[in-house]
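Question thread 4412

I'm putting together a teaching handout and wanted feedback from people who do this every day. The idea is simple: show students a protein as raw sequence, then show them the structure tokens that encode its fold, then repeat with a second protein so they can compare. Below is the first pair exactly as I plan to print it.
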Amino acid sequence: MLTLENLIFRYPKATANTLDHVTLPLCEKKVNVLLGMNGAGKTTLFDLITGVLPSKRTYLNVTTEQIVYQTQGTYISPVIRASDFVRLICGIGGLTIAKQPEGLDHYSALEPVEQKLISKIWKMKLGALSVGERRWLFVTAVGWLDREMYIFDEPTTAVDPSSRIKIMRRMDSLVKQSKLVLISTHQLHELQDIDCLISLLHEGKIIFHGSYDQFLNQGGSDSPDRAFEAFITC
């Protein structure tokens, strides 16, 4: 278990802290999930951990070189092919730069439905892929980089249920490799199918920390959306 302790951050000219003495335990055996309203400070927290926002403090015993951070607005040209993107990531990670997906170092670790998908999209331009296919490809490929920590900012936004399941399985796969995984999401129902540890950030503070079942119980509802609403309005 690693812990972010007493994290404080205020943007210039702001009248209040965006993050106000935030302490966030992170578990290497679960998918760590950060919830919060739009503008709650989730991305700010990720930016501080990864050094995107400059800080004099080190927040985790993990160097920024050992962190993969996939932001919401990662720009990849829509005219390059899926195979080119995969080869780029493989080149960064010192992996085999394969001509066909079957030659990838991690191809055999993909589930059959994923092997079929990567073969289908291999020669397609990224702009021709569905949102779900593109996000799955990005998450899968960067997950092949051998790092200690992986941060994904809303990786399942605007994707179909099938792609969402595939993406969450990639998160589970990283956890099973003893990697530290931290994500944010607004798709709360997807959390029922993964072993996760939830933290809820509201008004600069962590107001809940626990399992999915504890989140529902303390929120007083079987619906995660209604439980979320109960937490932020109490």
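The second pair follows. I'd like the answer to focus on this one:
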Amino acid sequence: MKRLLPLLFLPILTAQAEDTALSAPAAAAAQQMQDTFKPLTRGLRPRGSVATRSGSVIRSRGPVQQLMTPVEAAAADAAGRVDPPAQVPAVPAGQSPAPLAAAPAPPPPPPIPSEQIDQITTVEADFQVNATEMIAFDSIRFELDSATVTPEGQEILRGIAHALKTLPNRRFLVEGHTCDLGTDVHNQRLSCLRAEAACAWLLHFGVSPRQLQPAGFGESDPLFHPNPELSSFENEALRAPNRRVAFHALSD
């Protein structure tokens, strides 16, 4: 029995080592995700009422550089279009095989020039989500009129990725949001790109593409509303948290 103890405690020690590798903001984000979303028992649907979220997805990209979006990555993998692993050479008798190199992570998403935002087109899409499993991260910030995640937001996404990898049987709607500055159409397009950028960072940190569905919600669902009696400087403190990313558990 004594010889089994190290094996029994190995997963716990490994998890603790991974947690200590996260910065304090990333660890806090990981804990928030784990408190909000729970693993599913095989064969059972998540508890809670189902609601419909109506957003948008990108239909055509124009000049915007193609990111390997989660839906496309999963479809490519299912269709066998992803490069197959290299053939492992035969190992002579009495020798141990060499360890396989880990697959490289997808690169982080490139910055998207603001002048290209209005050259994409979007289409409306409905998603069935669990109404009781949702969390918004206004700490995943974007500069005004930008789909580039700030360095602070990238660190939050690192923690979220840590949590999502402990929930491999859950799928998530990754929502991009904007503030009210700009036209409705522009903000809808911008929010789709923000959702994709967040997903691209999660893929970079090792999350499975099958867990992620990006969608944009424009300015339709703000956390805070600007006050016309306040100055533009004061209202910026209300607008900035609206430029965010949120997560809903998909009900399927």
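Top answer:
Good format. For the second protein you could add a caption like this: Confidence is low (pLDDT under 50) at residues 1-20, 75-88. Residues 184-204 form the longest helix (21 residues).
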